[in-house]
Predict the structure.
Amino acid sequence: MRFLSLAGGFVLGLAVLFSSAPATAQVDVFEFDTAEQEQRFRQLSNEFRCPMCQNANLTSSTGGVAADLRREIHRMIMEGQTDAQIEEFMLSRYGDFVLYNPRLTGKTILLWFGPLLFLIVGGWVTYSIIRRSAGKGDLALAEADVKTVGKEEGAEKTVEISAAERERLNRLLAGINTDSDADKS
Amino acid sequence: MKNLKLYLPVLVFAALAVFMWRGLYLDSRTLPSMLINKPLPEFELRSLEEGDQLLTTADLPNEPFILNIWGSYCLPCLQENPIFMAAKDQGVVPIIGLNYKDRDDAARYWLDINGNPFDLVIVDDSGRYGIDLGVYGAPETFIIDANGVIRYKHIGTIDYRAWEDEIMPVIRSLREGGNS
């Protein structure tokens, strides 16, 4: 039984392997001295955007320029250049566009903090809506309290506080929706 | 206050509509060049005509000229060829070709059939020099001034409108700047 599930896992693994193969359309073969170099190559190729295909990184792009750029990245890694140097190489030729992980500059500040801005504005709107409806709820509760209290302990307090409310209630019950009522909602 | 709230969704819609309408006409395929106002990168490349002679930036014209990135496989290059041919016939401006990621025989055949508007064709079969230029696909067209500085880049086909409205004004202003 255990063997069967292992075999099943193996078959599933193979299926996943082959089904995902077309997603990485890269056909060129590069050789590296160390696993670390290969790892860096993969990471850099994944982080740079293909200038021609626009919505693909260098790893997945089949474009001619992407193949050339992969070759250049491989060359620079083998020459011992740092990731920063390789990024500078790409930036000086193709600009910020090639970075899937954009730098923080004056031009990209909205890109970086735009979502935060929307979060703050949205949060403020939500907060003010909640506060308003919560305030209403408190008022209703307080009215209910006052009414109960009034019934139990005496009519003086109740009359004092709810006179305007009662008048409004009466008007509502009479089916007259006044402007002052609409303002409060 | 009451009216403003009522119209808020309409205002938000209008603002979004303006941005999205603009977005419809934004050309996201055209990347701004990083090389404007920078010297043309150095190169040592073959000429298409004389196979073994290496060309450098010293072989380029000492006046404003056009550098056209093309290939025999590239249909838009065929479309812009008549404009360059007319410019060559009238001696408007020197045009240098950079044969980008192409085969020499295919490139020569293409020029024989369609006409050769280029004063000089530089061969970049590996595409390595194209990377230095920030090229990502033919056709791309650069305007270089008399000092070898890149002053303008047009990505994609050059049609008559682009020639008249973009290319020629830049060439004229470079010439005036050079004379004064």
